[in-house]
Amino acid sequence: MQVSSLNEVKIYSLSCGKSLPEVRRRIELIQDFEMPTVCTTIKVSKDGQYILATVVTFEILSDDYSKIVFLHNDRYIEFHSQSGFYYKTRIPKFGRDFSYHYPSCDLYFVGASSEVYRLNLEQGRYLNPLQTDAAENNVCDINSVHGLFATGTIEGRVECWDPRTRNRVGLLDCALNSVTADSEINSLPTISALKFNGALTMAVGTSTGQVLLYDLRSDKPLLVKDHQYGLPIKSVHFQDSLDLILSADSRIIKMWNKNSGKIFTSLEPEHDLNDVCLYPNSGMLLTANETPKMGIYYIPVLGPAPRWCSFLDNLTEELEENPESTVYDDYKFVTKKDLENLGLTHLIGSPFLRAYMHGFFMDIRLYHKVKLMVNPFAYEEYRKDKIRQKIEETRAQRVQLKKLPKVNKELALKLIEEEEEKQKSAWKKKVKSLPNILTDDRFKVMFENPDFQVDEESEEFRLLNPLVSKISEKRKKKLRLLEQQEHREKEEEEEPEGRPSDAESSESSDDEKAWVEEVRKQRRLLQQEEKVKRQERLKEDQQTVLKPQFYEIKAGEEFRSFKDSATKQKLMNKTLEDRLKIEAKNGTLSVSDTTVGSKQLTFTLKRSEQQKKQQEAEKLHQQERKRLRRSAGHLKSRHRRGRSFH
């Protein structure tokens, strides 16, 4: 438990901070009161029995937790009952906030649209939306007294609508009214928070850190309160017993009088704030932070502790009875040896030191003052330590590989060199560094599985990377040096530095002519290697001694000759590349280049002997029919000539 005081208002933090030396026990008001990651919204049910915290916006429709509506960031709306999930639907555009109108059972949703969507829970269907003049709407609220609906827009306006007639009844230009003589505005203020109090009072928070208090009968604000941080206002709450307004941004919670604007007290949590909830009719304050643990604060001046933790009143009264306990805003534990080094042994037994176990508690401010007097160069040492820590942090971000992976060692070495060059350029140009493949789990298999080994001897690699040969030779030399270091078991030594990036860039930046010559050279080498391979295969064929072999003819197949079966068997043993070349020679395969640089293959299927005989028979049949037609034509012509002669 930690105690802070501002304007004689004590604030007890019940969820973080160290306990005072006098308080020997640690107070944990709600056990495991934390989220898995962060919390964005926190609320208390109307009966005060349940605290709900989520990472999305939600609204409690009942007095307890039996009816809850959740607005997700993927446009879905979920309805939950006491037993759990009940129903799920979707709105047309992404939502940002919503409110429930109890008299008509309507849910009003605002978000990335100019329309305010209405969902009637009694009829179970969407009603006609309200068309606003804004491009988008951020927040909304409904007055619990007369049911007036208000929505805050990104243009800095507040539009008020009457749900009975579905007409707009008022418009407030809060962006213009938030600009005062003392405020510095760099952008257009948008509405980030909205809250009604009673029938006529409304508080509006802007994205530039101002809170405007309005009377609905006037378009001019009664009071403008600036947080002086320039951060968006997260939430606004009213405390009626002391006429206070609690406004919070991501850094501070300010409590000020709504009539005069005078600061009552303020609270600065350790982590950034997302939401603030004031427990009803009490002095307890709940916060949703950018950390898994949620904040719990107790301010006795605002009201008593809730009924379920009434012991807090007795505890705080005991602490206030001993005025010395409130002196320790923070403390430092020192031993007797530390006091001798600081020259403070004469303070033993005085109020400045409190005995505890084998040492003493002393005020941290006194400790820092004395230490600065004893060692005036402590700040310089502190500064050097901080610089050293920063350098070590940047070194830790680099890729540290004492042993290169078993697969793709050259690729890993290349990535390490590129990462070093990026870090050098990042120091000069202050460029944000990108994640490295070596530290990414998605590419982990590429350096472990031998199937992903890059074949640098393949034709595709050599043609696509003609200029990598010089750099790869240097990298191979460096790789051999690293392997020697691994065998010598000198992993503590730093890896040998490569050539500076300027030299590599100058060597790799050859002109187009050199690149073309290198490609031609690689092609000639590939042709020579292919010629040598063909000669070796020819020698192997000539040296092969044929042995008698027996073959089994399957049912339904015809035996033509041993030569054909042997040729077929020999062809099946060849690679796809060799078979394609043979097909190209026989004329059954044609290879052509396309306009986009790829290749096109056209196959002609072989015909069997039976198909050839059938084709020849059909050809002879066609010829016989043509011959009969010609002979019949001659007979007809002769017959016509004979009749004309008679």
UniProtKB/TrEMBL annotation:
Transmembrane segments: none annotated. Residues 440-466 form the NUC153 domain. GO terms for biological process: maturation of SSU-rRNA from tricistronic rRNA transcript (SSU-rRNA, 5.8S rRNA, LSU-rRNA). Keywords: Nucleus, Repeat, WD repeat. It comes from the Eukaryota. The keyword DNA-binding does not apply. InterPro entries: Beta-prop_NOL10_N (IPR056551), NOL10/Enp2 (IPR040382), NOL10_2nd (IPR056550), NUC153 (IPR012580), WD40/YVTN_repeat-like_dom_sf (IPR015943), WD40_repeat_dom_sf (IPR036322). One of its GO terms (cellular component) is small-subunit processome. Residues 327-375 form the Nucleolar protein 10-like second domain. The keyword Nucleus applies. Residues 60-322 form the Nucleolar protein 10-like N-terminal domain. It holds the Pfam family NOL10_2nd. Residues 484-515, 606-646 are annotated as: Disordered. Residues 606-625 have a biased composition (Basic and acidic residues). It is found in: Nucleus, Nucleolus. Residues 626-646 have a biased composition (Basic residues). Its main location: nucleus. Belongs to the WD repeat NOL10/ENP2 family. This is Nucleolar protein 10. It comes from Cebus imitator. The gene is NOL10.
